[in-house]
Design brief:
alpha/beta, Rossmann fold, Ubiquitin-like (UB roll), 5-stranded mixed sheet, 37% helix
Length: 396
């Protein structure tokens, strides 16, 4: 799974990325700080199911804090996009291509309105952040349209000559954008494109491109810099205007400060929570900064928003669930690690899907699965639920 961070220059993407991953990235308030895409591991948050058995998980990947388990996911932060990126302006084509394999996008915007359309600093509230949402939609839609349009004449003529299935051929052409036959068929049906593709006009192709983009690159809006005065008003305006989008308030700076403070043992902090405990000696500057974050971010919005955005991107937009391999009589592996593995899979996955995810041989030799909590046997077609712990029985 890959989460792509997108947005215009200086919107706070690199700060968001560092706050999510604590990776060392260059952060500066001028366009194109990020030239090559930054890649790193962020973490989504689930309850540590081992607590139900009075134990604590020992993750092979990720980590546990208190009663929560943090499961790694891959993030990519591409350089800021400017209007006309799909035409090659800025570093447009290169950076759009970096997003090819992203499963979901997080659009980081400066909700305080203190960065103009080209990434230059202006006075807070002097720029309308709704323009950023609109421009990015256009850029992504036109990027998809460009991919569709490239070689369209030859593509459609070949289809007609060889009498190929349009959904199969189109899915193959767009496989780099995560499109499959089912998605293509849904879009064609929705847009009532029942004529041969050679007759489709540019407006129809643009509508198809947009629909495919929405399906293959679901997007959440990270309303960053919510701690700047006046940003809350802009946030509520965005919620009213873009009712179809999931828009979450956040402060990358606040999350980064909290994680750095925790890293240096100054505070105890669990990402996504609305509080922290001071455990070290703070100087006056540190004390004032943490008090500001507590009052203006955590108390006001319930969290810094960064963890919430990652969790919602995976569990709501992508509709994934977390699953744990375990044994009815023993949660530990051969080395004594409690529930070392956690797998993220699409909601609706079956016990057999889970077996194949663990190992191809487990899928081929599947006999049954057992729900560790209920000790009930389930068959191969049984649909698994979020946070299920499953034992598999396979032929030797």
């Amino acid at each position: 799974m890959l989460i792509g961070l997108v947005g215009k220059p200086s919107s706070g993407k690199s700060t968001f990325f560092k706050a999510a991953t604590l990776a060392e990235v260059e952060i500066a308030n001028y366009p194109f700080t990020t030239i090559k895409p930054n890649e790193g591991m962020g973490y989504i948050k689930v309850e540590d199911v081992a607590n139900e058995f009075n134990k604590k998980s020992n993750p092979r990947e990720g980590y546990c804090l208190d009663k929560f388990r943090f499961v790694p996911i891959k993030l990519i932060d591409v350089a800021g996009l400017v209007p006309g990126a799909y035409e090659g302006k800025g570093k447009g084509n290169q950076f759009l291509s970096d997003l090819n394999q992203a499963d979901v996008l997080i659009h980081v915007i400066d909700v305080s309105g203190s960065i103009d359309e080209n990434g230059n600093s202006v006075a807070p509230l002097s720029y309308d952040p709704s323009k950023d949402i609109e421009f990015l939609e256009i850029e992504l839609d036109m990027w998809y349209f460009g991919v569709l349009k490239k070689g369209w004449g030859k593509f459609t003529r070949t289809l007609k000559q060889e009498n190929q299935d349009i959904k199969k051929a189109l899915a193959k052409q767009l496989s780099g954008l995560n499109a499959n036959e089912e998605i293509v068929q849904e879009s064609i049906k929705k847009l009532k494109l029942d004529r041969h593709p050679i007759e489709w006009n540019d407006d129809e192709l643009k509508s198809l491109a947009r629909d495919l983009r929405i399906k293959t690159k679901p997007m959440i809006i990270a309303a960053n810099k919510i701690d700047i005065q006046g940003a809350k008003l802009n946030f509520h305006k965005l919620q009213e205007k873009f009712k179809d989008y999931l828009i979450i308030p956040c402060s990358g700076d606040s999350e980064l400060a909290l994680k750095e403070a925790a890293k240096h043992d100054l505070i105890e902090y669990i990402p996504g929570e609305n509080n922290f405990n001071v455990k070290g000696t703070l100087n006056e500057k540190q004390k004032n900064a943490l008090e500001f974050i507590k009052k203006n971010v955590l108390n006001e919005f319930g969290s810094s928003g960064i963890q919430n955005i990652l969790d919602k991107a995976v569990f709501e937009l992508l509709d994934y669930i977390a699953l744990f391999p375990g044994g009815v009589n023993k949660l530990e592996d051969s080395e004594g690690n409690v529930l070392p593995d956690c797998f993220l899979m699409k909601n609706g996955s079956t016990a057999l899907d889970f077996a194949y995810r663990l190992h191809t041989d487990f899928g081929k030799n599947f006999i049954k699965a057992i729900d560790v909590r209920t000790k009930m046997t389930v068959g191969k077609d049984h649909k698994l639920k979020h946070k299920d712990i499953i034992e598999l029985a396979v032929r030797k």
